[in-house]
TrEMBL record:
Keywords: Glycoprotein, Hydrolase, Protease, Secreted, Serine protease homolog, Signal. The keyword Signal applies. Belongs to the peptidase S1 family. This is Inactive serine protease 35. Gene3D superfamilies: Trypsin-like serine proteases (2.40.10.10). Residues 242-251 have a biased composition (Polar residues). InterPro entries: Glutamyl_endopeptidase, Peptidase_S1_PA, Peptidase_S1_PA_chymotrypsin, Trypsin_dom, TRYPSIN_HIS. It comes from the Eukaryota.
């Protein structure tokens, strides 16, 4: 199974080119000029209540038909939608207003393109997901870029200190969810220090005590993991790091979170899936490879129309789950797709492999954030889709600005 998985991962682009009609297409990352996001002013807001319940499935959001009817956002709309809230680990909150320079407004509006009909449900027919059991794969690129968020979602590393995830993992459109005040991110570990040994009756570290008080769920998981490590030490002859399908995590505190104002209230007056993304800044940097951002191409510019992502689906507790699938519908801001997924994988980074300009090398980049299983309106009826938020030039500019603190490193993407 592992060898088959590697074949799928590394040769999907080649399979996508096997169709004679596609061999002439240029599956390359094309650099585009990015609009500028400029900070205008920042002011303090009241601290959030942090009382909302985490909801991994949204109803009555603006779907395919609704998207077609939305007006084209004006420059004033964009400035409002791309302004953002920042919540810090001490519970304080600010709102930053921005200006948008060099944005090209699409006169066609938020059009959608439909490719094929889809089956209903989150798992479509035969479950096509792969559980990554071998730690040699879990802890190597691209799988080691997947992270676990303590509110029950997934995310992806986009810099040495930043994680990209879905906004509704932290905020329900009205208030921040419980647990987001003491937010943590779990990075998969290769090996515990000291091979997991801990003296019986040894005192817990200050971090462990803090974790137990603030987030019992995370503390329980860490405790169970530690016990499991001790049991493995008592079994002579058993290899360390064996394929048990249960990754261990190094939990890191989140220093601050950024959410676009468009998530709180979109142009339709409700929460807008178009802005269902957030960036978490870690308190301490990691030293592993992360995945770069990319501008989302159209379906026609994707080999086989395929996308990929990995996350921590709730129905496969503790396992890293990888999947790939083709996109069925797209709008200017969203992908509607068939990817088999369950709650827990929400917030995963969706990536794609294309050729680098003037090179033969293929490179993975994040092109969307998995928003999850959503109910959307189609011809006046609610139907379910698995939806992803595309990284457009404007969203690229905003996320890049959050990473670097300025637009100097965000001129092209």
């Amino acid at each position: 199974m592992e060898h088959m998985l590697l074949l799928f991962i590394f040769f999907i682009p080649i399979l996508g080119l096997s169709n004679g009609t596609e061999t002439e297409q240029d599956f390359t990352w094309h650099l585009k000029k990015i609009p500028q996001i400029v900070r205008e002013r920042t002011f303090s807001l009241d601290s959030p209540k942090f009382e909302a319940k985490t909801k991994l499935e949204l109803n009555s959001v603006c779907g395919i038909e609704c998207q077609r009817k939305l007006p084209v956002p004006s420059l004033s709309d964009l400035k409002d939608l791309l302004s953002y809230e920042t919540v810090f680990e001490n519970g304080t909150r600010t709102l930053t207003e921005v200006n948008v320079l060099g944005a090209v407004l699409d006169p066609a509006g938020n059009t959608t393109t439909r490719r094929s009909l889809r089956k209903k449900r989150q798992i479509y027919g035969t479950d096509s997901r792969f559980s990554i059991y071998d730690k040699r794969f879990m802890t190597n690129f691209p799988f080691n870029t997947a992270v676990k968020v303590s509110t029950g979602c997934s995310g992806i590393l986009i810099s040495p200190k930043h994680v990209l995830t879905a906004a509704h993992c932290l905020h329900n459109g009205k208030d921040y969810v419980k647990g987001s005040k003491r937010l943590r991110v779990g990075l998969m570990k290769t090996k515990s220090r000291g091979n997991g040994r801990k003296r019986k009756g040894a005192k817990r570290s200050r971090r462990e005590v803090s974790t137990a008080k603030e987030d019992p769920k995370v503390a329980t998981e860490q405790s169970q993991q530690s016990k499991g490590d001790r049991k493995r030490q008592r079994r002579p002859g058993r290899k360390q790091g064996t394929s048990d399908g249960m990754p261990s995590f190094q939990w890191t505190r989140v220093k601050s979170t950024h959410i676009p104002k468009g998530w709180f209230k979109g142009v339709s007056g409700d929460v807008a899936l178009d802005y269902d993304y957030a960036v978490l800044e870690l308190k301490r940097p990691h030293k592993r490879k992360y995945m770069e951002l990319g501008i989302s191409p159209t379906i026609k510019m994707m080999p086989g129309s395929m996308i990929h992502f990995s996350g921590f689906d709730n129905d496969r507790s503790g396992q890293l789950v990888y999947r790939f699938c083709s996109i069925s519908d797209e709008s200017n801001d969203l992908f509607y797709q068939y990817c088999d997924a369950e709650p827990g994988s929400t917030g995963s980074g969706i990536y794609l492999r294309l050729k680098e300009p003037n090179k033969k090398k293929w490179k993975r980049k994040i092109i969307a954030v998995y928003s999850g299983h959503q109910w959307v309106d189609i011809n006046g009826e609610q139907q379910d889709y698995n939806v992803a938020v595309r990284i457009t030039p404007l969203k690229y500019a905003q996320i890049c600005f959050w990473i670097h603190g300025n637009d100097g490193n965000c001129t092209q993407g």
